[in-house]
Design goal:
The N and C termini lie far apart (69 Å). The chain is 22% helix and 18% strand. It is elongated and about 95 Å long. A hairpin with a 6-residue loop joins strand 8 and strand 9. The chain is an alpha+beta fold and 226 residues long. The strands form six sheets. Strands 1-2-3 form a three-stranded antiparallel β-sheet, with no helix packed on it. The chain has a three-stranded antiparallel β-sheet with strand order 8-9-10, with no helix packed on it. It has a two-stranded antiparallel sheet with strand order 4-5.
Length: 226
């Protein structure tokens, strides 16, 4: 929302009313909100709506609605016209914008997503991985930035594809490891062998070595010589 007019209100000398150039309604002088630091004024409701809209767009440094006017609005000056939740959201957004990207991350649980700060600048994560979110109180891995994965090491987790990192996927991987199942190198499905040689044919048609998991041809694995 931007206003291009160089003046923001029209005053009526007889009844001391004005026309807000955002909503275009006549308002009483008591409903006027003068922006600190510039000559523009609008009605209080329009300014409150304007600020709320900018916050919804993830903009925390909010300037005057007039195009070309770069005067920034001050949260505490605007507090009287804002609902408490909008004022609090603005304050949180400003605080978050001051934190370096390298120092912040979010709780990996989607129903929480609380802002967390790496005050050690990454050094502590070398030795400490299991942490508790101060908001939702659930455990997460500080190194991998995901819910805690007790069944697998960080090094193993980082090798997984993006679509293999859910808890159920990790549990299946652990089961496959205990059963000594092998994965088809083509479609990535787990295959179990009950007997026979190491040369396998997956249902997708791929020939592979059950011993090392590599592609094989002519019943021979050039990777491990089986």
């Amino acid at each position: 929302m931007e206003v291009t007019s160089p003046k923001s209100v029209h005053l009526d000398g007889h009844d001391n009313s004005f026309t807000c150039e955002i909503c275009a309604y006549d308002k009483s002088a008591s409903e006027m909100f003068k922006i600190m630091g510039c000559t523009h004024s609008y009605c209080k409701q329009c300014m409150a709506n304007y600020i709320a809209k900018k916050l919804q767009e993830n903009i925390s440094q909010i300037s005057c609605p007039v195009s070309g006017c770069n005067r920034l609005l001050e949260p505490y000056y605007c507090r009287s016209i804002l609902p408490n939740d909008v004022f609090d959201k603005w304050g949180d957004a400003l605080c978050e914008s001051m934190i370096l990207e390298s120092e912040k991350f979010y709780c990996p649980f989607k129903d929480c997503s609380a802002l967390l700060i790496d005050e050690s600048k990454g050094e502590i994560w070398v030795t400490i991985t299991q942490c508790e979110c101060p908001e939702c109180k659930r455990l997460f891995c500080a190194k991998c930035k995901v819910p805690w994965h007790s069944e697998i090491l960080c090094e193993e987790f980082e090798k997984l594809n993006k679509d293999e990192r859910e808890r159920e996927d990790i549990q299946l991987m652990q089961l496959a490891k205990s059963k000594e199942w092998q994965r088809c190198p083509n479609c990535r499905i787990y295959v179990g062998r009950s007997q026979g040689c190491a040369q396998m044919k997956c249902r997708c048609g791929c020939d592979f070595c059950y011993k090392c998991g590599a592609h094989s041809t002519d019943h021979y694995c050039s990777n491990c010589g089986t």
